Amino acid sequence: MKIRTRICVSLDGYVTTPDGLPAQLGDPAWSPEAFGFREFQASCDAVLMGRTTFEPALAAEAWPWDDLDVFVLGSRRPANTPDHVVVESDPARLLEKMRGANRGGDVHLVGGPRTIETFRQLRALDLLGVIVLPVLIGDGMQLTPSLGLDTRLTLESERSLPTGAVEIIYACA
After folding, report:
1. Of 130, 21, 19, 111, nearest to 73 (Cα)?
2. 109 and 46 in contact (C-beta within 8 Å)?
């Protein structure tokens, strides 16, 4: 099991717009298919995220993780959370539960900088995937302030996407 993340960042380093929306929504070319998100998620057996990322899915028209196990780092279980979703406030315990339930596939860490850094500090994050968008946002949340200075990354792969974005994948040491 590998824990992999895939986060979009604007060319000027923001993972959210000033109003808190994911950076990819600021790119007019955005679609889950064009950016490979559906393909990426199809290669995983589970998703792992923080409560802030999870809560909007509760109001979605369709559940976004049909055949995936769902693990949420949060201090409380949000109302209307499906019974099969594991919610845990301690990241190490959540990691244990996730490993115990793993069916042999990878885990998509869906989340923002704090959640990514939490699991990186536990040395649980295997691959950090960044999609650099050809947009300038100017303000919002940045990926880098939350990452520790001890982060050692090794380039695994890079590729240009048809939209003009670039995907870069690093192994976390």
Report:
1. 111
2. no
Domain span at 58:
3-172
Parts of the chain with a pLDDT under 70: 145-149
Between CA 108 and CA 47 the distance in angstroms is: 5
Q: Is the pTM of this model over 0.85?
A: yes
pLDDT at 119: 92
Burial (0-12, 13-18, 19+ Cβ within 10 Å), 11: middle
Spatial distance between the Cα atoms of 120 and 104, rounded to a whole number of angstroms: 21
Separation in Å, CA 7 to CA 3, 23, 84, 85, 164: 13, 9, 25, 22, 16
- Residues 6 or more apart whose Cβ sits within 8 Å of residue 157: 167, 168, 169
Mean pLDDT score across all residues of the chain: 90
Question: How many structural domains compose the chain?
Answer: 1
Report how far residue 150's alpha carbon sits from residue 18's, in angstroms, rounded to the nearest whole number: 28
